[in-house]
Amino acid sequence: MKEETKVRLFSALIVAPVVVICFVSYQSLIGLVSAIVFLASSELYFSTLMKYKKMGVIVLYIIIVSAFPVLFGLWFINFSMELFSVLFIMGILVTLVLVKNKDIVMEYFGVFSISMIYISFNLSFFIPLYKYYGASLALLTLTLSWAYDSFAYFFGLAFGKHKLSKVYSPNKSYEGLFGGIFGTFIYVLIYFYVMKTFFQCNTNISYLYSVPFAIITGLFDTLGDLFESAIKRAYGLKHIGKFMPGHGGMLDRIDGLLFVAPIIFIFLKIFVG
Known about the structure:
Layout: H1 3-21, H2 26-48, H3 55-74, H4 80-98, H5 105-123, H6 126-133, H7 135-159, E1 163-165, E2 169-173, H8 174-198, H9 210-235, H10 250-254, H11 257-271
Antiparallel strand pairs: 1-2
Helix pairs in contact: 2-3, 2-5, 2-6, 3-4, 3-5, 4-5, 5-11, 6-7, 6-11, 7-8, 7-9, 8-9, 9-11
């Protein structure tokens, strides 16, 4: 086993149990989402905007994006778009007041928008997932991405020959993509069996949903990873942050999940109700 693989595995085994424990209650989940948004957005801002030395703007950005999941989960879950619009406008106002250089203001707008939509808004879909579909399906959504990433990594390492995206992520392969989808399908079957048999989780989800869950995860996890890779390529970065040894930063770890969570929620809303 390569040294990098050992580091990745050890790091994941430390962080994963802490994250899973936070699914024990609705309030702890909100805290988890807000903490992850705080870490991931901080990494993004410090990697892209710190060169302009406007710490005040970065701090206000972090406060705004981290506040969304807390306010959304505790008080405004039925007014998500209204809350998002107010906070988004606040971020734009901060930019216009504190960034006086017209040559860089669009970069500030862009990075703030990415953090607000891609990180804070998308990750906050875990809150309605938990509230309306229960802890087991919310936890499944989280671990879907973990399962896919792991299977795709090992299948790509063993069989990868055909590059998926030479420009943005040259290490990814079609073999990794399809192997990851297959492995995720098996994982979902096992997850459903364990939850229904040993934990008596009462859900309307049948084993047939293993197929769409695996396909959604494979496609949108990969898309999220490519999106973040495009950001890193644009700024000449290998990782955004160093929170998890072997994995890079928090944003590197959740990049695919940020697209998987909202799509899984939409899928459940359409087909489960």
